[in-house]
Structure formats: structure tokens, C-alpha cells
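The records we work with from here on pair a chain with its fold. A complete example follows; check for yourself that the lines match position by position.
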Amino acid sequence: MNTIIDGRDMQPPEPMERTLEALDTLGEGDEVLLLLYCQPHPLFSILRQNGYTWSEESRADGTREIRIRKQLG
């Protein structure tokens, strides 16, 4: 199951909290899509330490699409 978290109108730390909650329920092959207007560097550190991988794309409106998955292997 994929989860979408639109954090563009949320105040910190709510987007990170919701993302971490979603990661706790992430199944094999599932992903979390996080939408933000910034790069969440503290979240990236947590992801790296806990075996997650992510990719980023930027939209024309400034939104960053951050797709998070469990690291395979």
C-alpha cells in the first residue's frame, strides 16, 4: 500500500511525525510519497540510519516529491 503525505500546509514537526508513523506500517514494495516545499534534511538523516532509500523530484510549483522505500537487501 502506498501512502501520500501532503506536508505543504503543515507546520513542523507534523510532516516528519506523520512520515515516521507511515514508515512504521510500510510493507515490502510499498512507498511513502511526501510532498513538501523544502528538503527535510533531518528526516533524511533518520531515513539513512534506519535503512530506507528515497528519491526526489521537483515540480514546477516548487513542490518536492520525496518517495521513500525500505532498502532492499
Q: What stands out?
A: Residues 14-24 form the longest helix (11 residues). The helical segments are 14-24, 41-49. Strands lie at 3-6, 32-36, 52-58, 64-70. The domain at 3-70 is CATH 3.30.110.40 (Translation Initiation Factor IF3).
